[in-house]
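During data preparation, a discrete fold description was generated, and the record follows.
___
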Amino acid sequence: MFEDVPPPPGPEGAASLGGVAVSVLDHAVLDAVFRQSSVGVHVLDRELRLVRVTGAALAMRGVAEEDVLGRPAVEAYRHFGVEVKEQVLRDVLDGGTPARDVLVRGRPPQDPGRKHVYSVSLYPLYTPGPDGARRPAIGLVATVTDVTLRVLAEQRLALLYEARERIGRTLDVERTARELVEVTAPGFAGSVVVALTDAVLRGKPPELRRAGETPLLRCTAVGGSAHADGGVPLPEPGAVLLPGLFGERLPDGPELRRWDGEVRLVAPLAVRGQLLGAVAFRRPPGADPYTEDDLALVEGVTAHTATCLENALRFTREHTVMTALQSWPLRPDGETRHAVELAQRHRPGGTGAGSWFDVIALPGARVALVVGQVERPGLSAVATMGRLRTAVYSLATLDLSPHELLARLHAVTQRLAREQGHAPGHGHGDDEPAASCTVAVHDPVTGRLDLARAGTSLCVAVRPDGSLDADLVEEGPLLGDDGPPFACSSHFLPEGTTLCLASSARADGGPSQARVAQALAAPDRGTHPMADDLAALLAPERVLLVARTLRLPASDVAEWEVPGELSAVAPTRHAAEDRVREWGLGVDPLTVELIVSELVTNAVRHGAPPYALRLLRGESTLTVEVRDGAATAPHLRHAKAGDEGGRGLHICAMLADAWGVRYEEDGKTVWAEIALDGDGNGAGAGIGFGDPASA
């Protein structure tokens, strides 16, 4: 091709550069490019025959010059292990846009076992015409650079990035194993087998690796096909894979292993010395073998996968614990069904929000309704919830008013904070206990409802006429935060009022008052359909109580005003005995007489007017209540042998199944409960105290 070009003019008529004619310089540059450059430069004529190529390109690819020069491009480049499309070359030659950085793959004769990637750029070759006009192209010039290492590095980085983006999106160990397969097959491997240890599959903590020992591995996820695996069938999920596919032992890191005549890349899935499983990769037949760079890539992918598996395993274990802790047993409703008609709901969400509700039977046929929620969900919140729930139940037995109960529960929460290393009142850390809690106490004898609230919650009442009261009690500070005083209020509700309590709705705002009123408005509906409607409006991890207030029948209540004289004790106890006989209860009337006598006597002697006696008939207990206007605290004494008094409460404690004191704004009530039996014999039968009238 170059023989038809006129020789360059001599130095006399040519331009010069540094004293050297430009034409001579051009030839020197071309000679340096074709003889010394490592970049492949190829020249094709108009018939697309390869007419010149750099020597370095020939040597690097193991091709002899006589095998390619003068041959058509398609034929010549087959010697380089590359297939080219003649139409692409023709388009550039006929004035098309030059092609730049086109990636072409091939297997050069010098390295037939490995696929190479070349960056090719094509430009038309022109000679200058008269007055600078461009003549038709006389050929093409192509630059060829081997970019195999660069492309492989980019692919490895892309795979590592994809692994970090796609693996570990769910907190499930089996799904994480499948994600590893989806990311690496079929691009990185023709077949992939992931196996996990039995301990991990059962949700147990992984074992520490011991030298020379490998735990049982079971196939968890596979990808690819038997054809890609050289015809060897892929294992089924659940199959035991060690020894076998992974060898007699697992390597400490990614390693090439030969199995059934094939080479596999085997890597453990381990984190901090704990073995979770293993993975085996195999290239399909005819693909490039794995290299040391692939081992480094697999190390990064498996390290990320192992971390995700550990996170999933930890979540599974914590979720199991949280579910067990939050699946609290419900209190039996037999003791409260005469006070409220109740429905309770828990909408689980799996995050462990630490929500709880409770229904606690109190003396005097009363019932306490409690809902609460620990801030900042998690396993710590669920554990704190369990401790606070136990504390609420214990404090409720002390007959505290709701706001006093919350004040003591606040002290318990602060103590939990100190135990966890937090300083109360100095802001909340991620695990510092803080909780909202609402306590409502309903008295079915009077219809009185006492409320106290810490934090925020849903707390509304709908009366039988459909009117809604959403301002039953103001919000108060969180337990463990600023502390008492907590908001409290008292209401007298008509029978059939529907009360709705739900755990904290601060994060989601909770259902609107209109939706709540709509769900609770129909007094003829049962509490369970109402609770179903409201539960659908709540966010996950919320709890709900719907209670319709009831009144104790008048036939189950007997009450007497007691004059403030000791002479009134005898007629009062005889009246109580007569009522017990009239009711036909399974209790010894003499036991009732003795308890009434001692409690009324103590009230008249040590209390203040007004005095009153009340008997409450229940299904399993008889409750004796003596009320007076003094706030003095009676206490159980142990009288000496010669003392004439001081045995009243001691006698009551022996005869009654339970007793206590309930303080109110204008006095106190001392109560005692006597269990009923079915044969008419009470707890005091046969004790032999003699005639209680003489006590």
Notes: The first strand starts at residue 16 and ends at 17. Residues 190 and 596 are 89 Å apart (CA to CA). The chain has 15 helices and 27 strands. Residues 292-326 form the longest helix (35 residues).
